[in-house]
Amino acid sequence: MSKIDPTARVEDGAVIGEGTEIGPYCIIGPNAVIGANCKLIGQVTVIGHTSVGDNCVISPFAVLGGAPQDLSYKGEPTRLEIGSGCTIREGATMNVGTIKGGGLTRVGSGGYFMNNSHVGHDCMVGDSVIFATSATLGGHCEIGDAVYIGGLSAVHQFTRIGPYVMVGGVCGVRDDVIPYGLVNGQYAVLESLNLIGMKRRKFTKQRLATVRAFYQKLFHGPGTFAERLEASRPLAGEDPAIAEILGFIGKGKRPLCLPAIEK
Fold it and tell me: Which residues are catalytic?
């Protein structure tokens, strides 16, 4: 049985899952669907065509399903979908999509979104991500699984960040970041591989050595980057991570984030 505080406003048509708690002064719009066993602590706003998966915890002043911050939006019934098991902290915001962007913003399961973080319209965010305080995405970004975005970092619209990437704090990410990358700097540059994250995901010493050798050849070997990329393509069969990195390159609308020496 769901529990709804008497001060909360739940519009007709909203769907509240079994065991979910809606705290004081929450606002739940008529097209909201909230899964089972969620906890909206208080003063949470869920509006628009928004669905929230089971077992999510949402802190005060979070706003989910607000209109896109896009001048072309004219009130169309676009959507926001949030997976299960997410923690969404104070003041975090996530917007619905736009018609021109496909009409959907999607956030995966198991994410942790710290205070004042933001997911812009038409973004696709993977599972198990962590957005630190005030980490923000422009519209149409693609964020892979298990990505960490540091505090006060901002990701430019249409940027792709591959899975298992770590973005340092106070970074402006303007270019696509390869899977397993580590980026830092005011205007983010590729520093290295996210070796700590790879070790946490049980990469063996041999796999780490293989991927590191590939990384050095691709980003720090002789010749131009285009020449090194072409020469590295036969290495795709040596490790799935190498194949993933090679498959990622060149498929987005933004340039590729490179080491400082390549800038």
Answer: 121-122, 139
